Structures are given as structure tokens and as C-alpha cells.
Here is the input.
Amino acid sequence: MDMELLKKTYVVTGATSGIGLASAAALARAGADVIGVGRSTERCRQAEMAVGSLNPATRVHYLTADLSQQGEVRRLAFMIKDRLAADGKVALDGLVNNAGTYTYWLTLTPDGIETQWAVNHLAGFLLTHELLPLLRTAPYARVVTVSSDSHHGARIRWDDPQLRRRYDGLAAYGTTKLANILFTVELNRRLREESSVRAFAVDPGLVKTDIAMKGTPALVSWAWKIRRSGGTGPEVPARCIQYLLIEPSIQHATQQYWKNCRPARASQAALDNRSASRLWMLSEGLCGIGEWSS
Ligand SMILES: NC(=O)c1ccc[n+]([C@@H]2O[C@H](COP(=O)([O-])OP(=O)(O)OC[C@H]3O[C@@H](n4cnc5c(N)ncnc54)[C@H](OP(=O)(O)O)[C@@H]3O)[C@@H](O)[C@H]2O)c1
Here is the structure.
């Protein structure tokens, strides 16, 4: 067990399968308390049993929330606060914004937002906003957002950021993964150097998960099945996520985009401060939050 992790608590979204499940398992094995988040009560129950059985010394709880809906994200933040309080804790040591989806067709959430934009970007933005006071209370805390190499070549079309007028599922996915890095850049800028909270974005690489086989056309599922066969297991990015959550030496690292526990090259568009700031204001508006004072 890692003595560093004992008594620490981490929230992992999308912790019922793939990279999120592997990250929750790695953290629990290492001795941390884990709050996993999933959208299905049954899959949450199964994951809680599986992850909870890995280490009797840790507390593992799963909470159900559909992160495509902003009301659910806010409700989740309340449930996390209640959970911490029930465990006698006042601080949260890290948040992993991992939940992600790929939608081939244009679908809108009940809030009227394109689904990938809502789940892959806005949910992490809003959840971080809601949990920041708890993260600030920890001696040091991390916000790790799972992005992707597919942000390369993507750009935000400011006249139609959700691509609602001319939807293309892959382009929309790439845009949200670009948004993950821009969010990280702007969060760090707003938190400033001396903050105890630090944000990182991570490229998990190509990973053998079912992400493009959930509600997609048969041809897309088939193509993903072939493509993912060249990928790693989810335990590989889970190691990097754990590193970014706990490694003390990177608290003041200037590199914000990582892969395999090393800094990675993000696109110029992803590191553009003006776009990061513009996206932030757009996201505040879409989430109905006023000026985010950080
Ligand atoms: N696999 C790759 O090669 C790859 C590469 C680059 C980046 N990524 C990123 O890695 C992250 C994890 O993906 P993965 O590959 O591990 O896929 P995955 O196995 O499908 O995991 C996605 C997780 O997000 C959850 N989720 C999806 N929609 C949700 C919603 N509306 N509300 C709450 N939870 C929701 C899923 O729940 P269910 O279990 O109920 O489906 C699942 O737990 C994503 O952000 C993805 O963009 C993956």
C-alpha cells in the first residue's frame, strides 16, 4: 500500500467501465478511498462490489448520475459532499473527469446541448466548479481530465461550437477532447501558481474499451473493434492518471498535457490562451453559472 494515498479520497467519473474502472481499481489497490460515478445503478453496484473487494482497508462508494444533464451533475456534487461528510472528511484530494461518450448521430440532451459536448466537456467543467471548495481544502489536490490525441487537428468553430448545423460525430468528439485541454489550461491560469489545486489533461493513448460500441451503428462498432485491437489495456492509462493525481514533484510543472507519465505534445490550438478564456466564458454561460471566481 502507498502510504501517500492512505486517507486520501478521489472522485472518478465514468468509473463503471474502461479507463475509469481501471483507475478506480488502481487507486483502491494503492490504499485510497474512491468515489466512483456511473450512469447506471446496476453497473455502479457491480463496479462498487468489484473495486471494493480489492482492498479491505479502503472505502469505495459509487454514485449514480447521468452527466449529460446539468441538474444531475449538480445533484452529484451534493451527493459527493454528503459522502465525504459521512466519512468524516472535509476535503477532496482529486477529481478525475473521465466519463466520455462517442455519438455518431446528432443528439441533444434534455438541456438542449449536443450530447458529446455535454458529457465530454461541460460535465467536467461544471463538476469541477461545484467541487472546487472541497479540492481547495486538501493540502494539495489535482483535477485530471481525460482528453485524447484526437484533439490534434480539431478546432472550435465559434459560430457553431457544438457542430449542430453540420454535425460530424468524429469532429464533434475531437472538439470536445480539444476543449478538455483548453479547460485545463484556463483552470490553471485562474488558479494561479500558488494554488494548492493543479490541473492536468491526459492522453490515454489507444485503449481497448467499448467506447465506440455503445449505441453506434454496426459498421462503426465493427471498425472500432478492429482499431482498438492495437491498443493497450485500460490499466496503462490508469497508471498515468494515478501518477498525475498523487505525484508531489509535478505540483508546479508547467506541462499540462501528459501521456504515459510524461509530458506530451498538445496542439497549438489546445494551448491557445485566448481560446481557453473564450471557451471558459462560453461554458459558464451554457452551465448558467456567473463569473467563476477562483
Ligand atoms: N478508449 C480509447 O482509446 C480512448 C482514447 C482517448 C481518449 N479516451 C477517453 O477516455 C475516457 C474513458 O473512455 P473509455 O475508453 O474508458 O470508454 P468507456 O469504457 O465507454 O467508459 C466511459 C465511461 O463513461 C461513462 N459515461 C458515458 N456517458 C455517461 C453519462 N451520460 N453519464 C455518466 N457516465 C457516462 C460510461 O458509463 P457506462 O459504463 O454506463 O457506459 C463509462 O463508465 C473518455 O473521456 C474517452 O474520450 C479513450
Notes: Residues 14, 16-20, 38-40, 43, 66-68, 98-101, 119-120, 146, 148, 204, 206-207, 209-211, 214, 231, 234 surround NAP (CB under 6 Å). The domain at 9-286 is CATH 3.40.50.720 (Rossmann fold). The two ends are 34 Å apart (CA to CA).
